[in-house]
Known about the structure:
Radius of gyration: 17 Å
Number of strands: 9
Mean pLDDT: 97
Distance between the termini: 38 Å
CATH class: Alpha Beta
CATH superfamily: NAD(P)-binding Rossmann-like Domain
Number of helices: 9
Number of domains: 1
Strand order of the largest sheet: 3-2-1-4-5-6-9
Bound molecules: NADP nicotinamide-adenine-dinucleotide phosphate
Amino acid sequence: MKRFENKTVVITGGSTGIGLAVARQLVAEGANVVLFARGQAELDLAADELGQRCMTVRGDVTRQADLGSLFQAVERAHGGIDGLFVNAGIAEFVGLADADEAHFDRIFGTNVRGAFFTIRTAVPSLRSGASIVLTSSVAADIGAPCCGVYAASKGAVVALARCVAAELLERDVRVNVVSPGPTATPILAKSAVDEATQNRLGPFVAQRMRMGRLGDAAEVGAAVTFLLSPQASFITGQCLAVDGGMSGL
Ligand SMILES: NC(=O)c1ccc[n+]([C@@H]2O[C@H](COP(=O)([O-])OP(=O)(O)OC[C@H]3O[C@@H](n4cnc5c(N)ncnc54)[C@H](OP(=O)(O)O)[C@@H]3O)[C@@H](O)[C@H]2O)c1
């Protein structure tokens, strides 16, 4: 029997990158997946690729009404949730001088507020034995220049996860975090920086890429799939770095 047979996993930010890599692995292992993101075109492409066990819901994690619609749709289609990958996120890298209120609100609105309300809205649908995984980032651990707001948002994700893990113990729900290093996904192009920022951030990151390469989304996905699986049944409140040694060496 496959590890995720008859299981339903919701993936926010499931249309591209790490979220899509996790969806591929889960479907191959028998799961029903529900992908949530804002862009319809990317959701349609993912659904075409993944086939009948993939459902998509279009929406924005910063909008409570959209999150309500997501979990209502999941309840109607599957009756409950066995796994939740809280992965939707954005990155912007700017120095202190350019880090204005709008930048702060965008990053925290999606990465922290969005993650919190995703979990809060999902809780009534979680089945006993369910597993939640959130996506942090190596940025939270390495003190990189021009990353303050993004890094703070990803540090907040780890703190949030630990508290939710404690609170959901009584529901027999585990909560863990995966912390990727720089990984080849569309986010790299979306968060392209100006020359001045590149000159400060680029050498800092390059020097710390201990394996000398970017991660692959499937490498991060394998860790997420493990944490979602019954093989991780005694693991909760943990943050697993998948960063090629960037934070640990
Ligand atoms: N790639 C890296 O180097 C790296 C390293 C460390 C951590 N991470 C984290 O990994 C996670 C996944 O990123 P990725 O690298 O796979 O990049 P990605 O391909 O850009 O994926 C981001 C996903 O989140 C969705 N999303 C963004 N804002 C959203 C919102 N407000 N509501 C709903 N969905 C939203 C995107 O779709 P739409 O834009 O269509 O909504 C997309 O599906 C993020 O949390 C990111 O911070 C990435």
